[in-house]
Amino acid sequence: MHQKYLFQTNRLGFRVWQPSDLQPFGEINSDPETMRFFKNPYSLEETQAMMDRMARMFEEKGYCYFAVDLLENQELIGAIGLGWKTFEADFTPCVDIGWRISKNYWNKGLTTEGAKACLEFAKTLGIPEVFSYATSANLPSIQIMKKIGMHFYYEFELSELREFPHLKQCTLYHIDLLNQV
C-alpha cells in the first residue's frame, strides 16, 4: 500500500496519523526504555489521545508530530515533527520540534535526518523560529538539537513535571529560521 506523504527525505516519509498506526505507535509508547525521559510509558488509550491531538493540530495549524515511515519497508518507526506549546514559560506559546522513534531505529541518523526535514517544512509554512526542549538528562535528544543547527537557550523547570524531580530540569534549544547562518 503506497502512503501519501506530505514530504520525504531519502529514507523517511512524513504523513498524518491513521487508525492503523495505533498498534505500532502504542508499542513504541509503551516501551520503558523509549519512554525513560517521560513521566511513564503510555497506555494504548494515551497513545490514541496523542494521535487524536496530532490530527486536530494538523487541521488547525498545518503541522504536528507526524507519523514517520521508513520508506524501504513502509514501517511506522515513530513520530517526528512540530508542536504548538502553550504551557506557562517565558518562551511560550511557541512552535517546538520533537521526536520519538522506536529504539530499533536509534543511532542510525534517522531522527536527525527527519528533524532537519521538519525544520525545512517549518520554513515553508513561514514559521520564524522553533524551540526544542528535553529533560536535561536526555543527552541523545540534546545531541540531535545540536546536530540540526539549534543553539542552547537556557535551562528551566517544566511545571508539568514538578512531581518528577529527576525529569523537571529541562534544557531548551532554539533556532531562528529566518536568519540562519
Automatic annotation (TrEMBL):
Coiled coil: none annotated. One of its GO terms (molecular function) is acyltransferase activity, transferring groups other than amino-acyl groups. Residues 12-171 form the N-acetyltransferase domain. PANTHER family: GNAT FAMILY, PUTATIVE (AFU_ORTHOLOGUE AFUA_3G00765)-RELATED-RELATED (PTHR43792), N-ACETYLTRANSFERASE DOMAIN-CONTAINING PROTEIN (PTHR43792:SF1). This is N-acetyltransferase domain-containing protein.
